[in-house]
Amino acid sequence: MQGCGEVPGCGRSGERGLGLAPRIHVISRQQPPVPLTGRTDLGGFYFQFRAERGGARSAEGECQELCGSLHYGNNLSIQLKAQDIAQTLMRPSPWGPWSTYHERGDQGRLLMDPVGLQLGNKNLWSCLVRLLTKDPEWLNAKMKFFLPNTDLDSRNETLDPEQRVILQLNKLHVQGSDTWQSFIHCVCMQLEVPLDLEVLLLSTFGCDDGFTSQLGAEGKRQPESQLHHGLKRPHQSCGSSPRRKQCKKQQLELAKKYLQLLRTSAQQRYRSRIPGSGQPHAFHQVYVPPILRRATASLDTPEGATMGDLKVEDGTDVSISDLFNTRVNKGPRVTVLLGKAGMGKTTLAHRLCQKWAEGHLDCFQALFLFEFRQLNLITRFLTPSELLFDLYLSPESDHDAVFQYLEKNADQVLLIFDGLDEALQPMGPDGPGPVLTLFSDLCHGTLLPGCRVMATSRPGKLPACLPAEAAMVHMLGFDGPRVEEYVNHFFSAQPSREGALVELQTNGRLRSLCAVPALCQVACLCLHHLLPDHAPGQSVALLPTRTQLYMQMVLALSPPGHLPTTSLLDLGEVALRGLETGKVIFYAKDITPPLIAFGATHSLLTSFCIRTGPGHQQTGYAFTHLSLQEFLAALHLMASPKVNKDTLTQYVTLHSRWVQRTKARLCLSDHLPTFLAGLASCTCRPFLSHLAQDNEDCVGAKQAAVVQVLKKLATRKLTGPKVVELCHCVDETQEPELASLTAQSLPYQLPFHNFPLTCTDLATLTNILEHREAPIHLDFDGCPLEPHCPEALVGCGQIENLSFKSRKCGDAFAEALSKSLPTMGRLQMLGLAGSKITARGISHLVKALPLCPQLEEVSFRDNQLSDQVVLNIVEVLPHLPRLRKLDLSSNSICVSTLLCLARVAVTCPTVRMLQAREADLIFLLSPPTETTAELQRAPDLQESDGQRKGAQSRSLTLRLQKCQLQVHDVEALIALLQEGPHLEEVDLSGNQLEDEGCRLMAEAASQLHIARKLDLSDNGLSVAGVHCVLRAVSACWTLAELHISLQHKTVVFMFAQEPEEQKGPQERTAFLDSLMLQMPSKLPLSSRRMRLTHCGLQAKHLEQLCKALGGSCHLGHLHLDFSGNALGDEGAAQLAQLLPGLGALQSLNLSENGLSLDAVLGLAQCFSTLQWLFHLDISFESQHILLRGDKTGRDIWATGSLPDFPAAAEFLGFRQRCIPRSLCLSECPLEPPSLTRLCATLKDCPGPLELQLSCEFLSDQSLETLLDCLPQLPQLSLLQLSQTGLSLKSPFLLANTLSLCPRVKKVDLRSLHHATLHFRSNEEEEGVCCGRFTGCSLSQEHVESLCWLLSKCKDLSQVDLSANLLGDSGLRCLLECLPQVPISGSLDLSHNSVSQESALYLVETLPSCPRVREASVNLGSEQSFWIHFSREDQAGKTLRLSECSFRPEHVSRLATGLSQSLQLTELTLTQCCLGWKQLAILLSLVGRPAGLFSLR
Q1: How many whole angstroms separate alpha carbon 1267 and alpha carbon 698?
Q2: How, if at all, do strands 885-887 and 920-925 pair?
Q3: Which of 547, 1281, 1324, 1421 has the smallest number of Cβ neighbours within 10 A?
Q4: What is the pLDDT of residue 331?
């Protein structure tokens, strides 16, 4: 309440003339401006009482109009009673009589004596001193709080206690009014102050400003809800400040009285439940707690949740006493109990209420139980007090005081809401209804913060208002022991108890139905009715399905020999109408009185009081269980003549259990299709016919219609939940044909993911699969399963793959599964992942697995198995003859256990791979050909002779990656592997072997018979360890490759197959001699690779490395890789000196070693020092440097014994002469000094030699330097400049080489980027040469110089100047110089942009070129221009002109030229655009040639 306001009912209309008309005003946390007639503090609010003049009436009488309840914020209310107000107003003042004070514009007011406000009041001061003397420690604490900077003098300890208190009070008083008044408030609130003294202290010294000022100072540093520990928050309580303690006491007494009333009411409610007529005593009193299992992941909560002070995992079984742990204020305060219909949710809720009434749940002072089916009737928004008092139990008086007490002690209040799934029904388009809104506020702590809330619901149908941290607990019904316990209690002290137990134990179907507590109760009731009149075994024969259970229950509850058909059908019509409208509560207007009497008499209906508000209550009716309402509705649909079969089939649908949390409407007919299918059974036809007044044809038609609908559903593709519902319906019909159709229509892989399944569900599925011939795969992933569920799969021989993945599977689940596994004759794959099975559960499975010889794959992934449990599992390997895979991943085993598993892998003859990597642990096996019986005769792991022989023939792969193996583990592993079979692969990467462990493994590699790979990567190997590893493997004949990269933590050994035994000397000599007759490419290949890359190797390491590598060189050709190290120039030079000592290498990689250009060029000296070196490839910028031997015959001549054979020596000499060496230098700045040094280095290189150079641009000076050095390289056979830019001068420099260097036989320059010079060998005689200068941009100005250079050559067999820029003028100049150029072959001038002028000039030039024997020109698309020469003058000439497009003016020139060419023997003119007239002129002017003359 803000500001001032009048209390309702006390306004001016209530004033009278017979005395004072009291009026009350409220001022919110403000100090009154003047002393008032009466003033009291109610939780920080000041109440001002004014008395106006009037007649003489008693204060209590005048204050009658004030009695009532004053409400203000945060649900706080203050009860004002007339007697309390009168006592406060009429109490005599200690300062003297009341006096009258007049103020202008106001009537007289009663004021206190101003003297009473002075501090010097002796009596009050003395009382305060005496009070504080009793508690000096409290006063010292307040002194430290209010005066933190004041030193409390230790000399005060010697003072009299009263004198010391006076001294301390004086110090507080001098601090000012704010400090003093705050202190007085602390005295009154925290100490036991007499009521009269409290009134005087607050009236005289205490004022709200002082207290709030202190709070304001502290409030700047602390939140409002966390005041200083030395202060108390003002309590919002009843009455005035002087009477606060009395009001607290009254409030406590009222609360205790209400709590006792609450408990007494609950006791009376549950004590009044007595058995009905003709029913056993246990029918109402039997209670066996169902299986409860905690699940925290249902509302997207993190893995593991805290309930109370215990951190638990999803799937933990809990008892009823564990549902509420209030030892600490941690964990979720909202618990949701999830269970399918009939699991006992409502029964458990009432059981909790009953236990609390009996005093067992002492952690709660108050417990309230609400049912949503009743709360849904509320249409207005409720406050918490209205919910508790108006709808549950109202206090006898003072509701607000009781509610305030409950609010303060909310952590001891438990609210149970039954049927949360039914709360979704009234949800409209505008959001949740008023009751669901109130429930949401209670769950989130908005209302009654701190209270405990428990709700029950069917799974999947949860409103979004639930907090994400709510604890989810699944109710999973009964297991076998619980069913037996329930039956024992039900038939307690009755002779039929033993008979009932025998019936249940011998009938699996009925036993699976009893897993649902509600059905267990119905079954017991039916047996109680049937056993006395039936022989053993006949009773359960009448209870094969859920539907027939209910049918027998109706018969049992009916009078003997009399079935009230009309009443049953009428009640069924009411039930159906309720299901269709979502109604579960009925009023008297909904059901006729006779039907109400019938339902009550036969225990089909229950009645209860419905409260919708204060004074609003009426009687409601409901069926004893929702399933009963569904059964009666099904009876009405099947037997009532009002329902035809078309209407009936609309109700035969499958409800999915995957219901969205946002679904607005709740389907109340989950079991209605199941009951309809059950009533479609032939067994139910007599019962239905009796209900239908013997109309058997109508009943039969309806039953056939239901079966037909189920047949259509059986052929559809359904989700997992709908498959389960379909199986229930089909099983209820007891129709073998329908069951066979359903079973055969199921897919080969049938998944069930993330929805709860019961034992009854699996039993029903098993019943259907019995009608299937083909195998099936069942995958249960994330499904909450009851511990005894696997028992329902006993005898299901159709299952081929069976997989479970759920944290809810424990030891009881494993024990039940072990009983089922041996009965599954086709089972090949068993998966049990993500469970919480311990050693006890695994022991049962280990005993069961040998009884499943057909198993091929078993998985125990992520089961938190201990080391001993894992060892127990692998002991079963020899007993599973067809097993191919055993998965034990994600089970956190230790190293010693891993070594034991490795021993099993070595000794077990069927294991072909053991793979362990961090969490992975997998055995792969190869089943032998022995039969199961043969293997079972030798169950131990000791090797017999046959097994030892088999071990030698099998190959084992062992991968122990990232397993924290150390050196001592490696020693044990080596000893183990030496006794084992041949190893395909050993992978120990990611461990902690370090140098010593790697050395030990490398030394043992030759003894372990590893066929393919040994991986020691990521084991902390150092540079020093590299030397040890190299020495260790030097004697290993089978090593094919060793790759060590310390930067990438790589250490990998690759092995080749062991070589065959050495052949005899004669055979070996014949073999080597035969090599002479083979082509080089056909020679056998054999090599070893040593890759020491990115190891940080420096020059100082090379000598030791080469010594370690020396032992490997004699074993075959060696590929050595030192790339990615830090050798530098010093290392390159040192390595060049050490390489001859390594013998013959096949290759050496020195890339990425930081070599300079001088060091790179210096490597060319290796050509003269290393006989094996044939190729040197260098890319300077990318630091790619590779020295290679010849690719052919590399395993022949390198062996030490080979030169002793004559054939081999002859072959080696032939090879040295024929195979050229090559130097490829690219990405390198080729300056003249570098080229000079390179050529000088290559001077002593044995030939033949091929030199390939490449750079971005080669200057003319560099090219001249290179060409000048060519005579110094007599062994040079090829010089190639590829992808190298050259200038326009380069064609002339290269052309000049033809005359300067007689060994050059061919110059090829293309596009000024590719130049190639071919050289004659020293043995070849000088001969013709040729030059190609294509695409070099040569024009007319270059023709004379080029012809002059070419004229110095002795003999040019070919000149190619095609694709240049000669044009007509350049071609004319070239033809003029042509007689001086000694061309003996051909001249190619194609693609030089010539026209008819060039063709005419060629015709005119022919007479002056006697050595030309043929010329051909094509100016069409081919653009060819060829001139062929002979060494001597040619007697006859041939001329071919094609597509020259001559014009008429060209005819005379053409005729003149042709006439002068006297030696022309053949002339061909093709498509030259000459018409008949031009041809006639041409023929008339030209003499006929001696040979062929062709015109086309």
Answers
A1: 115
A2: antiparallel
A3: 1421
A4: 57
Under the phi-then-psi rule, with left for phi > 0, alpha for psi from -120 to 50, and beta for the rest, what region is 304? left
Half-sphere exposure of 887 (CA within 13 A, CB side): 19
Of 1269, 1215, 1219, 1212, give the one whose Cα is nearest residue 1242: 1269
pLDDT value of residue 275: 43
Burial class (CB within 10 angstroms; exposed 0-12, middle 13-18, buried 19+) of 1232: middle
1468 phi, psi to nearest 5 deg: -130, 120
The answer to whether the CB of 700 falls within 8 A of the CB of 688 is: no
Q: Considering all CA atoms of the chain, what is the largest pairwise distance in Å, rounded to the nearest integer?
A: 169
Give 583-610 as a 3 state SS string: CCCECCCCCCHHHHHHHHHCCCEEEEEE
User: What is the model's pLDDT at position 1217?
Assistant: 55
pLDDT at site 301: 37
The two structure tokens encoding residue 658: 């995957």
Coil vs helix vs strand at 1480: helix
Structure token digits, residue 945? 């002779």
Orientation angle between helical segments 1396-1405 and 1367-1377, nearest 10 degrees: 10
Please give the C-alpha separations between residue 1278 and each of 940, 1133, 1250, 1308, 1361, in angstroms, as whole numbers: 73, 27, 5, 11, 22
Q: Look up residue 29 and give its amino acid.
A: R
**CA 877 – CA 1072 distance, rounded (Å):** 52
CA-to-CA dists, residue 1322 to 210, 1273, 1303, angstroms: 120, 11, 8
Residue 628 near residue 342 (C-beta atoms within 8 A): no
Count CB neighbours of 1380 within 10 A. Answer: 10
Beta bridge partners of 414: 367, 452
- Please measure the distance between the N-terminal and C-terminal CA atoms of the chain and give it in whole angstroms: 121
Which residues face 778 on adjacent strands? 750, 802
Residue the block writes with tokens 């019909």: 733
- Measured distance CA(967)–CA(997) in Å, rounded: 5
CA 1149 – CA 1153 distance, rounded (Å): 10
Give the residue among 983, 784, 699, 777 at the shortest CA–CA distance from 291: 784
Instruction: Give the per-residue pLDDT at 1000.
Output: 93
What's the pLDDT score for residue 1075? 41
Amino acid at 1171: Q
Lookup: tokens for 494: 């009755």
What is the spatial distance between Cα 835 and Cα 860, in angstroms, rounded to a whole number? 9
> Is the distance from CB of 1084 to CB of 1195 less than 8 angstroms?
yes
Phi, psi (deg, nearest 5) at residue 255: -65, -45
Structure tokens at 174: 């001098």
Residue carrying the six token digits 């638990």: 312
Burial annotation 1244-1267 (CB, 10 A radius, 16+ → b, else e): ebebbbbbbbbbeebbeebbbbbb
CA atoms within 13 A of residue 239's CA, in its CB half-sphere: 24
- In the chain, which residues have pLDDT < 50? 1-120, 208-242, 274-284, 297-314, 328, 425-428, 659-666, 930-952, 1059-1085, 1193-1209, 1211-1212, 1214
**Among 142, 145, 140, 132, residue whose Cα is nearest residue 156:** 140
Residue-wise DSSP of 821-836: GGG-TT--EEEEES--
Q: Is residue 829 a contact partner of residue 800, using CB atoms and an 8 Å limit?
A: yes
Closest among 1147, 1091, 1139 to 1117, alpha carbons compared: 1147
What's the burial of 287, exposed, middle or buried (CB within 10 Å: 0-12/13-18/19+)? middle
* Phi, then psi, of 73 in degrees rounded to 5: -45, 165
State the virtual CA torsion across 304, 310, 315, 321 in degrees, nearest 10. Answer: -150
Neighbours of 898 (CB within 10 A): 21
Kindly report the backbone phi and psi dihedral angles of residue 1354, in degrees, each rounded to the nearest multiple of 5, phi listed first.
-75, -45
Q: What is the pLDDT of residue 81?
A: 41
DSSP string, 1114-1172: TTSEEEEE-TTS--HHHHHHHHHHHGGGG--EEEEE--SS---HHHHHHGGGHHHH-TT
